[in-house]
Amino acid sequence: MIDILSADLGEVKAFVAAMGEKPFRAGQLYRWLHVTCADSYDEMTNLPASFREKMKLEAPFLRAQIETFQESREDGTRKYLFRLPDNNFVESVFMRYHHGNTVCVSSQVGCRMGCRFCASTLDGLTRNLTAGEILGQIEQIQKHVGERVSNVVVMGTGEPFDNYDNLVRFIRLLTDENGLNISQRSITVSTCGLVPEILKFSEEGLAVNLALSLHAPTDEARREIMPIANKYALSEVMPAMDTYFRKTGRRLTFEYALIKDVNDSDETAQQLGRLLKGRNALVNLIPVNPVVERNFHETDRAATEAFKKKLEKNGIHVTIRREMGRDIDGACGQLRKRYMT
Ligand code: SAH
């Protein structure tokens, strides 16, 4: 049976044609699904009742529901918890930045990458999200907040490149001018570094921003905190990132969560500087969100500034990520975790 929430306009057109309906109905239906964000066929009042009844049988759909949300009193950041039709939960975050409203989406229920500092991976991977389920997080939040979302980051729970086909389908739906119409340059995909998928992604003709979760400048140090580093060495990951830059022209981002006494020494900053030198790169320093299950603490502000200065001496662009929503369940996956237990 067709998953209508994940179908692109071409597929919706083919489906509608096969049902013997007029072609323009496909566009109407697609708008109801992705612009109005209708919850059911009953809402689609400009479609003939007979067509809606047929669709209910041939292409039933259920959206995820907002189970709860928390709003930060400090900056208006909202954390949403969605209940999927199969009773799994995923989290998304809505943030207001000067350059526009941004939503951070999850790409999987759980994650199997096992990064030591990450709460999303503690219970492993439950399942992939469909393209429609990833997209739905943005559609539902936009409807709930009542403001346009202009930027999307795939930095919630899950490894997007471990759900490659649905990720690419999601991006094509998200950028479709008949749908949410978000521009490619306003989308960022973050990966822990799956080399074959980075290379494949550079061939998709999608000029979205790519961020690598680096977190350590040497294989040895990286393996301590990221199991994926056992599979792909930096000598493979960095050239793959360079290929992505060459093919798309998009500046690369390297995420670096500063963990006290783990990856924040002067020497580490030097190594990181050497690794990134000469690349058109932005380093995003993130004070690590403490995870109670692990014994990791954040680097203090002064040491973070010192780390930043060291990198800048090597000509590298560095930003320190502004912490949003400090007063609501902080780290990725923590709101969901509270509901699971
Ligand atoms: N799997 C992808 C995307 C999801 S994680 C990836 O690894 O990039 C999004 C970002 O949050 C990654 O950079 C990840 O390393 C980081 N992250 C995870 N747990 C964190 C924590 N406790 N504190 C700070 N950043 C964290």
Notes on the protein architecture:
There is one protein chain. It contains eleven helices and twelve strands. With 341 residues, it is of the alpha/beta class. It has a ten-stranded mixed sheet with strand order 1-2-3-4-7-8-9-10-11-12. A hairpin with a 5-residue loop joins strand 2 (78-83) and strand 3 (89-97). S-adenosyl-L-homocysteine binds at residues 113, 115, 117-118, 155, 159, 190-192, 213, 255, 257, 286, 288-289, 291, 331-332. S-adenosyl-L-homocysteine binds next to strand 8 and strand 10.
The percent range for strand residues is 15-25%
- What is the share of helical residues? 25-40%
H-E order: HHHEEEEEEHEHEHEHHEHEHEH
Q: What kind of sheet is the major sheet?
A: 10 strands, mixed
Distance between the termini: 33 Å
Identify the quaternary structure here: single chain
Briefly, what is this?
With 341 residues, the protein is α/β, with parallel strands linked by helices. The protein has helices at residues 9-18, 24-34, 49-58, 131-145, 164-175, 195-201, 219-225, 234-248, 266-276, 301-313, 334-340, and strands spanning 65-71, 78-83, 89-97, 100-104, 108-110, 125-128, 151-154, 187-191, 209-213, 252-258, 281-287, 317-320. α10 links the parallel β11 (281-287) and β12 (317-320).
